[in-house]
Amino acid sequence: MKLASNVATGVYDIDIWGLLITLILVVLAAALTVVMKLGIAKSMLWSTLRSLFQLLAMGYIIEYVIRMNNPWIVAALLLVMVLAAVQITLSRADDIPHGLVFPVLLTLIASVLIVDGVVSELIIRPAPWFAPQILIPVTGMMLGNLVAAVAVAMSRFFSDMTSRRYEIEVYLSLGASPFEAAKPSIVAAVRLGLIPTIAQLASSGVVLIPGMMAGQIMAGGNPLEAAKYQFVVLAALSAITMMGDALIMTLIYTRCFTKAGQFIADRM
Question: Transmembrane residues, as ranges (predicted)?
Fold first, then answer.
C-alpha cells in the first residue's frame, strides 16, 4: 500500500491513504480513552475531524487567495481570521466578565499590525508587500499563539483578583491606586501567559524541531533556511505574546474598579 509519493522535487505528498491511517491512529487512541474511562473519546474524535476539515478548507482558501494575488482579498481573509480569533479567545477564557469583545479585538488587531509590519515587511520583505503566501501563514501562527496566551492571562487575572479581594481592599484603603492594587495579579497573569512560549523558545532545536521548520524540511525545503524562518517566528512569538498580554491587561484591569477607584468583586 502506497502511503506517500516521492516526486522528483523531493516533496513527499500525503495521499488519501496517509490521511486515513492518521485517522485510524486517532480512533485507536480514542478507544484507549474509553478503556481508561477518561470520558474524552467523543471530543477527541470530533476535534480531529473538525481540524481536518478546517485545515483542508483553509488550504483551498489560501490557494485561491494566492492565485488571485489581490491585497483586498488578503486583507479580508486576515480580518476574518482576527474575528474568529476573538470568538475563540473569549470562549477559551474561564470566569471572565462580559463586555470584553472590544479589548480583545483591539489587542489582536494591534498584534497583527505589529507582526505584519515588522516580521513580514522588515524581516522577510516579500514582493509584493501583501504576498499572501507570507502574510497569511505568519498572521495565523501569531494569532494561534496569542489566542491561547491572552485567554490564559485573562482567566488567571480575574481569578487572582477574586482570591485577593481583601488584600486589594487593604491596598486601596492605604491609598494605593487601582493599578497598584491590581499589579500583583497583572504580573502573575502575564507571567503565566508567557511560560509556554518561553519554554518552546528555549527547547527548540535541542529537544524538539518546531512545526514550521519540520514542515518546510518535510516539504523539501532547505534545512538551514527552515531554521532561520523558525527562529524568526519563535522570537517574534515571544515578543508579540508579551506585548499582547501587557496590552490586554492594561485594557481590562479597570473593569475591576469603579470610576472612583473602588473594587468591584461582584463583576467577576
Answer: 16-36, 48-66, 72-90, 102-124, 130-155, 201-219, 231-253
